[in-house]
Amino acid sequence: MSLTSEVQKRKQFLLRCYFCKTEYEIDEYGKFYHCQKCGNLLEIVRLGGFRDVAISKEMQGIWKYFELIPLWNSANIVSLSEGGTPLVRCRNLGRQLGLESLYVKFEGLNPTGSFKDRGMTVGISKAKELGYKASMCASTGNTSASLAAYAASAQMRCIVLVPKGKIAMGKMAQAIAFGAEIFQVDGNFDDALRIASEICEKDDKTLLLNSLNPFRIEGQKTVSFEIIEQLGGVMPDCVILPVGNAGNITAAWKGFLEVKQGALNSLFGTNLAHKTPPRMIGVQAGGAAPIAKAFKNGMRDSIEPVLSPHTQASAINIGSTVSWMKSLSAIYDSGGAADAVSDEEIFSGQRLLASTEGLFVEPASATPIAFLVKIAKEKSKEYTRIRDQTVVCICTGNGLKDPNSVLKNVRPDQIQTIPVDSISLEKVLA
Ligand SMILES: [Zn+2]
Predict the structure, then answer these.
(1) What percent of the chain has pLDDT over 90?
(2) What CATH number does residue 223 fall under?
(3) C-alpha dihedral sign at 63, 64, 69, 74
């Protein structure tokens, strides 16, 4: 199978309102960010199904799925070799929690240390294809680091808005090093996103690259393709991931649905259509948990935003979830769930994963682990359901981005000072 021509490919994708299904020309994106009729988020759909899609053997990382991504010309790809992250079988942690088959998809090994790179390579490539010279985002940290890197690679202007004093040190250092123009907003992430959106709606020369941008979702959905490939053509039973603005759970679910429709058939020479896609479980921090609360109350058509979100897991310190509608669909349609964990449970989960498996993830990424520890302790119905199943936690960011989260919680006995001789050390170790 060969790659589809540019002209043919343009005909295969459509920009559409997620809610009222009004259709738009895909290359018009950026002149508006929401449905012109009802104001809801836009999504990209592939027309004509997924039969006979070629998966490239020459391209690397997420771009081997080029046929499934709405970029017309491969010459516009701006890539730092994102994707292809390891799926680690966690035997030690699994044994400790009584889970038969536990995996971590370690997204912290992407080029800038988070899953955002999957979406940003597509977002910036599309920005290049559409002729943009400037990009902007609001960020809790990872998005700004990622956008700044890809904008640098594309030699495009990069403007980032961050909530003042609420960004992990490593992420801020990345954005500075990559040369972004950084503006600290004296408010929270939701305020920063509102300001960035207002500017980009008026200025059609600057593309907004937050997760409401459907091209980002098209890149992020590839995590699901990889998980299935790494499991040897098998759908996992359950996928657990952190939820902030909920772009990632939306994207991962879209990926699994596309596989069910045949997206990877050419790869396995078999039809995965009869396989049930995984249940999607979203985990939030207790101080910023509008999705978990909506799920608990059985709500699907609205959420109650948290006006002053607060969690030390800064990557998910978001009170007004942008992709709330899409993420609740992912959760309900997959028969999944949403829950919240405390900051204490998050930090404890972070250390547990690191000390049992050698995987150092940032606090937000430890929410799935904290959730598993919690349900294992409670011996909840959920625990009984998944203990013999294939469970994949998507750990979204690298622990090195936020070293303070560990350093400020260090046990006094873990770092000791000793005199300059081996006898003293021998005594302590005995
Ligand atoms: Zn609409």
Answers:
(1) 89
(2) 3.40.50.1100
(3) positive
The candidate with the shortest Cα–Cα distance to 156, out of 118, 185, 130, 138, is: 130
- Count the neighbouring beta carbons within 10 Å of the beta carbon of residue 337: 21
**Its pTM surpasses 0.90:** yes
**Tens digits of residue pLDDT in 268-317:** 877 777 789 999 999 999 999 999 999 999 999 999 999 999 999 999 99
Helix (H, G, I), strand (E, B) or coil at 340: strand
172, part of any domain: no
Q: How many residues belong to the chain?
A: 430
In total, how many domains does the chain have?
Answer: 1
Q: Ligand 1 centroid vs 26 CA: distance in angstroms?
A: 15
Contacts 24+ apart (CB under 8 A), 8-12: 9/67, 9/70, 9/72, 10/72, 11/47, 12/46, 12/47, 12/48
Alpha-carbon dihedral 215, 105, 363, 243, rounded to 10 degrees: 40
* Ion ligand 1: residues, CB < 5 A: 17, 19-20, 22, 35, 37-38, 40
Ligand 1 centroid from CA 409, angstroms: 47
| Residue 111, CA distances (Å) to 129, 232, 269, 329 in order | 22, 25, 31, 30
Q: Are 398 and 109 in contact (CB under 8 A)?
A: yes
* Nearest partner of 393 among 114, 113, 101, judged by Cα: 101
**pLDDT digit string, tens, across residues 386-419:** 999 999 999 999 999 999 999 988 888 899 999 9
| Domain of residue 311, residue span | 87-113+216-407
Sheet holding 13-17, edge to edge: 23-24, 13-17, 42-46
Give 357-389 pLDDT, tens digit per residue.
999 999 999 999 999 999 999 999 999 999 999
Please give the distance, rounded to the nearest whole angstrom, from the Cα atom of residue 151 to the centre of ligand 1: 30
CA of 275 to the centre of ligand 1 (A): 31
Does 241 map to a domain?
yes
- Ligand 1 centroid distance, CA of 301 (Å): 15
